[in-house]
Design brief:
By secondary structure, the protein is mainly alpha-helical. It is built from three helices and two strands. It has a two-stranded antiparallel ribbon with strand order 1-2. Helix 1 packs antiparallel against helix 3. The longest helix has 34 residues. The mean pLDDT is 84.
Length: 126
């Protein structure tokens, strides 16, 4: 399959997996002195690419995306907050909320891809 919706769903599943690992790492480091939370940014960049606001890549080493399926997730540190006296900024409540939201996101994407593959299977076997 090479249509754009399949590619975007696949990319979304990959991002969800990365986000799961990132959030899990944040939770595991809740008591690590000076640990700064990592956050995966993707959807904002994807929306910009879909609206045509993204930069055009003229070289593989350039930043930007020529199409929505080329958008890659970015993992950034959140450094502007501090929740503990030891310099750590992990907010367990926020991390657990983001973990739950990510699980819903992943579940929705798997339902969408399953429906898409089911309809393709129906057409092929009809």
């Amino acid at each position: 399959m090479s249509d754009i919706s399949y590619q975007l769903i696949k990319k979304g599943l990959d991002v969800s997996s990365l986000r799961q690992k990132t959030i899990s790492s944040n939770i595991a480091n809740a008591n690590t002195p000076n640990y700064k939370v990592n956050k995966v940014e993707f959807e904002e960049h994807l929306q910009k690419a879909i609206k045509g606001v993204s930069l055009i890549k003229t070289d593989g080493l350039h930043f930007g995306a020529s199409k929505a399926s080329d958008v890659e997730p970015i993992v950034k540190k959140r450094t502007n907050t501090m929740y503990n006296d030891n310099g750590n900024n992990v907010d367990i409540d926020l991390e657990m909320t983001e973990l739950a939201a990510n699980e819903i996101y992943y579940s929705a994407l798997t339902q969408i891809i399953n429906a898409k593959l089911s309809s393709l299977n129906y057409v092929i076997n009809r």
